Amino acid sequence: MKFTHIKYIITSLIFVLSLNAKAQQDPSFTMYQLNMNIINPAFAGSQDVLDATMLIRGQWVGIKDAPSTQTLSISSPLGKNLGLGLSLVNDKFSVAKETDVYIDFSYKLQVSESMDLFLGLKGGGTFINVDLQSLNINDPLFNENISRFNPNFGAGAYLKGKNYYASLSVPVLLQSKRYEKEGNVVTSASDKPHIYLAGGYTFSLENDSKLTITPSFMMRYVSGVPLSFDATAMVGLFDKVEFGVSHRLKESFSGLLLFKFIKEFKLGYAYEHAINDISTYSNGSHEFVFKFKF
């Protein structure tokens, strides 16, 4: 048996096992605080201006066909209390590609002069494409590609104060199958609901806010998967530069750097170093964020 055939078989086995090992998870982001619209529809319109965010993430650099993710979210207030948003996520891993397309709606409730509660709904779905034929393996399991669309919807709440925020959301509420194969072998993976809880608070160490410290966290729960917990601390200088560190419990440490060139544009970069078994094979993960306000 040729080495290339062995390589394809090993790659395919890893792919198939990854489908059945645990419930499939949506991508995780190091700079989650800048990409809230993807996971919480209530965030739409909460920034009081037209807001557009693009994120590019390359995960596990050094590993062939490792996951790569690109997101785009746009949101804007509509009138006094309504918000509208669009969120797109393109996620690719090996021969599998998924594209999420969702429309977000939110409604604002004024709790006090300095506190607003946004309630949101998300509707859309996921396009699934698995190019099994590209593996060139002569096996009935791999002779037919998979293509399907899974409709779904989600909900969330976003509490916004002068110096803090709190977020609770379930961006997909329906459990749906991502992959399936009929024939001699059946392999499938379920897309289970993800529950996100997040929050952050900005402390001003100077009266004119020249120096700020912002601790934040993100928790993600998926049935059958260990709880994911991110803790982040950012330091801001002159409302122009932010830098900090983040830790995903038992998974990784990250460094973050943000620049605000003008009032309407923010650029961010994060490097994530894994501390689990994948670190033996990977050179880390890179993440870029471009944020515009109009």
UniProtKB/TrEMBL annotation:
Give the signal peptide range: 1-23
UniProt key word Signal: yes
Q: Which UniProt keywords apply?
A: Signal
InterPro entries assigned = PorP/SprF_Bacteroidetes
Under what name is this protein listed? Type IX secretion system membrane protein PorP/SprF
